[in-house]
Design a protein that fits this description.
about 450 residues, mainly alpha, disordered C terminus
Length: about 450
């Protein structure tokens, strides 16, 4: 068995399957949640809930401050070193506690102001109910980052699934108790609070063994340095596939945005297909990069790319085949109007889907600043293309611009790893006949 085959062992495939199961549960729960709120509480409450969720997601990135990425990377890098693991885990949790608490307080204090901006008192009150959840989210995100770094992906997947089920359970309880719409914001706080104890028992960040050559103060400094550089990537990654919808809102009417958003909803789901593989592959990448064998890294990357592309093609094929059959369920010719948009977006995403599992490669190599710079460049290209094409071609222009941006992101990742990690020709070509690895100089004597 080659080293590359060993990286794609039964555990890797099993971890991937478990996380696809969690993804399916999350997707199904999200659909049920939105449909239930719309039917039981009304469309207005659905709007309130989604605005609370949008604020929560943005604030959550600040609350965790990239510390989860730092914990995942360093835990994977120091696998087998029990004392280093304790320092990494303990300091990451302490930082999450401090930053999460500060963020939760700020969001709670500003919740009325947020409600005034949204011109909705329920949104403001709902954000206030969700704000304490930011503390627990930060802690849970770091604890799950540690699980990810240790490749305990079954536990990671179960935690992901448990979170969405608890949110759904709270919404069902709110309906049963006939609570007002703003109370739905508490679903996030309750779910994260209930998730924290089992994650603490799984990770046990207080566990210590042996001696360490690096103390807690140094790990705090490392976490903050890594997190500060990784934070922009976290913010931008959340908005990367939503740029087109946000920009369309400026240039076209609500009806056109609605048609495009319907297709974009399916693309967001399809985008998660390779993202699941990325979650599983990140800690493996840390160790492959640490080994220093660039040919092995490129071969491993190409196998992951083929796996991701194959799974994506199957998922996209099913989505494109099923989509036309939804026409009887939606008014105003929504499905036939959205279908051409979906085809263009899916085509562009297919070019990028192979690379998505590897698009955090620079971060796994300990270069979070370059990772954020890469995502900033990709977002800038996406915005520029949409600004150019939307005014002239409307939603069709947005689809072409976004599809082109996906393709550009694949190219920029390949160029980045070429120059930052020394992979001549990038992941795609390094070590092949087209771009062989350089021959090392002969030793003297």
């Amino acid at each position: 068995m080659t080293n590359t085959d060993a990286r794609l062992d039964r555990k890797f495939l099993g971890d991937t399957a478990w996380n696809y199961g969690a993804f399916a549960l999350m997707a199904a729960t999200g659909i049920i949640l939105n449909f239930f709120i719309a039917i039981r509480f009304g469309v207005e409450t659905l709007g309130v809930f989604n605005q609370i969720y949008a604020v929560y997601i943005v604030a959550a990135q600040l609350a965790v401050f990239g510390i989860h990425d730092s914990a995942q990377k360093y835990i994977a890098e120091h696998a087998g070193d029990g004392q280093a693991r304790w320092h990494i885990a303990r300091t990451a949790v302490l930082l999450a506690l401090g930053i999460g608490l500060g963020t939760a307080f700020l969001v709670y204090a500003g919740s009325n102001w947020i409600g005034k901006i949204a011109d909705s008192e329920p949104v403001g009150r709902g954000v206030g109910m969700a704000a304490p959840g930011l503390l627990f989210f930060a802690l849970n995100k770091v604890l799950m980052g540690i699980l990810n770094g240790e490749r305990r992906m079954k536990a990671f997947a179960l935690a992901q699934g448990a979170r969405v089920l608890m949110i759904l359970g709270f919404v069902l309880l709110a309906a049963r108790m006939d609570w007002p719409s703003y109370m739905l914001g508490a679903a996030f706080t309750v779910a994260e609070f209930l998730l924290l104890p089992p994650l603490l028992l799984l990770v046990r960040p207080w566990r210590s063994t042996g001696e360490s050559t690096m103390g807690s103060q140094e790990w705090i400094r490392r976490h903050l340095d890594f997190g500060t550089k990784a934070l922009p990537n976290g913010f931008l990654a959340e908005s990367y596939i939503r740029v087109d919808v946000l920009m369309l809102a400026v240039f076209v009417g609500d009806a056109a945005v609605g048609v495009y958003s319907f297709a974009a909803m399916f693309i967001e789901g399809l985008y998660q297909v390779p993202v699941v593989i990325r979650t599983v592959v990140n800690p493996v990448l840390v160790r492959v990069i640490k080994d220093g064998d660039r040919i092995e890294l490129a071969r491993f990357g190409r196998k992951i790319m083929l796996m991701s592309l194959g799974i994506f093609i199957v998922a996209a094929g099913i989505a494109l085949a099923v989509f036309p059959y939804l026409e009887p369920f939606f008014p105003d010719q929504l499905v036939p109007r959205a279908y051409p948009i979906l085809i263009v977006l899916a085509g562009g995403l297919a070019l990028y889907a192979a690379y998505v599992p590897l698009d955090f490669m620079l971060m796994q190599a300990g270069q979070p600043g370059w990772q954020s710079a890469l995502m900033t460049f990709n977002i800038t290209v996406n915005v520029g293309l949409n600004l150019t094409l939307i005014p002239a071609y409307g939603i069709q222009g947005a689809a072409v611009a976004t599809a082109a941006a996906f393709a550009v992101s694949a190219v920029t990742l390949n160029i980045s790893v070429w120059h930052r990690l020394g992979l001549r020709g990038g992941i795609l070509l390094h070590g092949t006949r087209l771009m062989p690895a350089p021959i090392p100089p002969a030793e003297d004597g």
